[in-house]
Amino acid sequence: MKNLLTIVGERIRYLRKNRGLTQEQLGELVGLPQSYMGGIERGEKNISLETLERIVNALNVKPEEVIFRTNDKADFEKDKLIDIISVLLKGRELDEVEIVEKLVKDVLKAFDERDKRSPME
Questions:
Q1: pLDDT tens for residues 85-119?
Q2: 100 in Cβ contact with 35 (< 8 Å)
Q3: Where would I find the HTH cro/C1-type domain in this sequence (predicted)?
Q4: Helix axis angle, 4-18 to 49-59, nearest 10°
Q5: What are the tens digits of pLDDT across the range 42-93?
Q6: By C-alpha distance, which of 75, 56, 68, 71 is closest to 15?
Q7: Cβ distance 76 to 11 under 8 Å?
Q8: Is there a domain that residue 59 lies in?
């Protein structure tokens, strides 16, 4: 089983990458050098809660999104995709987000209706 430093480092890496940031860019936002950020992501640095808070704020995520992880690969991939969608929507106007929400609801409704049909149809 991976230790907490490795888990947190991996989560920081994928959240950083989902936001299109380099280690250097995240380091600038947090006030740490790129080499130190690399050590954090590899699980080599034992960071303080203060540093973790700065990273969480720079990534614009909740602390639990960095600390907790699932052991289920499918859930991890699903969370990763949901995070990517969230990042894509953050910079959009409200009316655009509302349109995307309606589209998602329509697609999910179509999936649900497809699943309700019997296999014989």
A1: 988 898 899 999 999 999 999 999 998 888 887 56
A2: no
A3: 12-66
A4: 20
A5: 999 999 999 999 999 999 998 988 887 666 677 778 878 888 898 889 889 9
A6: 56
A7: no
A8: yes
Residue 87 lies in a domain: no
Let me know if 95 is exposed, middle or buried by CB neighbors in 10 A (0-12, 13-18, 19+): exposed
User: Domain total for the chain?
Assistant: 1
Check: CB of residue 3 under 8 Å from CB of residue 46.
no
CATH number at residue 61: 1.10.260.40
- As a whole number of angstroms, the distance between CA 3 and CA 67 comes to 11
Tokens representing 29 are 């936002």
Residue 80, Cβ density class (10 Å: 0-12 exposed, 13-18 middle, ≥19 buried): middle
